[in-house]
Amino acid sequence: MPTTEPNRAASETAFVRGVAIAPRPPPAEMTGLLAWLRINLFSTPFNILLTALIVLLLAWAIPEIVKFLVIDAVWSGSDREACLAYVQHREIGACWPFVSERLPYFIYGSYPIPERWRVDVFFLMLAGGIVWLLWPRAPRRDLGAIYFFIVLPAVSFVLLTGWSAVGLEPVDTVLWGGVLVTIVVASVGIVLSLPLGIILALGRRSRMPIVRLLSVMFIEFVRGVPLITVLFMASVMLPLFVPEQYSPDKLVRALIGIAIFASAYMAEVVRAGLQAIPRGQYEGAMAIGLGYGQTMRLVVLPQALAVTIPNIVNTYIGLFKDTTLVFIVGIFDLLRTIEVARIDPKWATPVTSTTGYVVAAIFYLIFCYGMSRYARAMEARLAKGGPR
Amino acid sequence: MPSDLPAQPRPARVAFYNDPKARSIAYQIALCAVIAFLVYGAARSAIDNLARAQIASGFAFWNHTAGFDISQTLIEYSPRASTYGRAFWVGLLNTLLVAGIGIVFATIIGFAVGISRLSSNWLLAKVAGGYVETIRNLPLLLQLLFWYNAVLKTLPDIRESITAPGGVILNNRGFFVPVPRFGDGIGFVVLAFAVGIAGAIALRLWARRRQERTGQRASILPVTLLMVGGLPLAVFAAVGWPVSFEFPQIGRFNIAGGIEILPELAALVFGLSIYTAAFIAEVVRAGILAVSRGQTEAAYSLGFRAAPTLRLVVVPQAMRVIVPPLTSQYLNLTKNSSLAVAIGYPDLVQIFTGTVLNQTGQAVEVVAITMLVYLIISLITSLIMNIYNRHVALVER
Description:
The complex is a heterodimer of chains A (388) and B (397).
Chain A: H1 6-12, H2 32-40, H3 45-71, H4 85-88, H5 96-108, H6 116-134, H7 141-161, H8 178-204, H9 209-224, H10 227-241, H11 250-275, H12 279-287, H13 292-322, H14 334-342, H15 352-384
Helix pairs in contact in A: 5-8, 5-14, 6-7, 8-9, 8-11, 8-13, 8-14, 9-11, 10-11, 11-13, 12-13, 13-15, 14-15
Chain B: H1 20-53, H2 84-117, H3 122-136, H4 140-152, E1 162-164, E2 168-171, E3 174-177, E4 179-182, H5 186-214, H6 221-238, E5 243-246, E6 249-250, E7 255-256, E8 259-261, H7 263-290, H8 293-301, H9 306-336, H10 340-343, H11 348-360, H12 363-396
Antiparallel strand pairs in B: 1-2, 2-3, 3-8, 4-5, 6-7
Helix pairs in contact in B: 2-3, 2-7, 2-11, 3-7, 4-7, 5-6, 7-9, 8-9, 9-12, 11-12
């Protein structure tokens, strides 16, 4: 084959192929399912071993889980007898009648039954506000922010605690419980921590030494101690530091603790965002004669907050998980209502605890996973530069 | 000096209330005044409230007899004779114990999962990813309660204890593991071990110096193993195996002998290490991804094999990214160990802000001491971190 001088060969030959030969298909072992399996699962002896081990593990775990949750599960019954292995003479999985009977308690706690529509309205209003604020193409998101951060808290407060003047029966917060309390604690933390965090972050970057010192001390102190100790501080120390007649109720004290804790973490997130804004932005704002407040409100913060949205949402995920800690200072959040219900003699069986925890796990997974998907989507949007 | 320019009129003085300096001083004075007012008000009501509730103040309670029992004590403690101060140390040691064990396990699981997520094995990467996504999105408290109430507390009771291989006994009162008892001559073994380690270090130094001088690599692994493992073993045999294991025995109501691991401790270690491992896995993954592929390819093209590439090129660069967030995860684990209070493990928070606070009523002092302990731990850690960072930065340039 004349491979060395193709040009001369081409010029001397009468016939030259003008059209390229169609490419041959790749070798069979490089395409299709088999090739995918070979490359991704069985590429080396070690990988074959790993794959085998994981398949064994999954083959053991998945049927066990399905068996517990579906096949062996009890679907109807009125008390613990239905979920006891030695009464039913069979293996017992999840005890679902326990959940369906206690579901109102898990959602509303001991909130008076005729007043529970108020909680439903609160949930709906909150869901509406969240969609308005988070959906990037929703109309008038500025109004949405006002609704979410000002109107919603005020209306919810009146709605949930009650106000005799408008015909709403007052409901003491000790009766609140379950998902209601979890959502209230999380939303108060979310609504308060952002503005407080922004103030603290600006304080930490301020040129005034005393302001800076106080902000740094507050942030580092709160971040250096566990949330439980902050909650203990709020629930046992706070009542000492205010005159007796103004002593806030238990739920409010826990909310103060959560807000303090969340705002310190939020401050660090916002500070990272502020640091990402180039100096030129400040100088440009100064050059066109904006004051400090205007610079921050119109130039710096909109940019800084936009780049930190993923981190802010991640902080919210942490906050949402941390709301479970109010359990320890005696607030009836979702986890605590499950703890109370699972040892109730009417339903106490060996499987009740696990069933209750599965319900809680699904609840937290849906919310936290949803938030983390949102954060990731926003991150992707920011990376693309967003629509102009 | 151009003196022929017309003299400029002095700029008009800005009114003092428009002067940024004066303003900033005024703001700060106002802030101080507000804070002083709040502190004063808080102190006044605290004095009133304490006097009304007849609660003592000050730290005199530290030396009072505690009078309550603690289920796990690493140092000597008796409810009748020991003071609140002693109870504090017991709690602190228990916190450090669970944090120490948790950190070891979390690191091992976390590195394994983090590396697995980047594995070329599709199934392994997916399973590791599923682990991280699930565990990170569930509250730690829920996980602790699950391990404690749904797993460890549903183990059979004493009479039907599960006997695991190696003489370990499992039941709903905890894990009971055999404990080795050493006889005479164990000192020689420890000495031999120390000599072996010193020898191994010396050998390593010598091998490295020789490689730097001549370029010849010495394979030091067999000799190192012989010195660290073989020497103590030989001495152990020479003094006649002075060790016996004390196995836990199931009695009618109790289990005698062995070391008892409380179910609270086990649940806390499980929960903390599995939870923190998910976060460490993300740290490790980010660290490895931060080392560009070019580094690996360059090492390959220089003729390095996979293992030395990882050890000499990738890991040292990844560690620089991994270590700072890793430390903050360790710190989180230590702080999260305070959730022990929910399942009744006697850690610092459970003993101090739980029992001691209830008995003395001295909320301010007790909470302040507890917070101070965690603050000191945080400060020491960040101090060490700063030193490490400086060290790493020096290596870099």
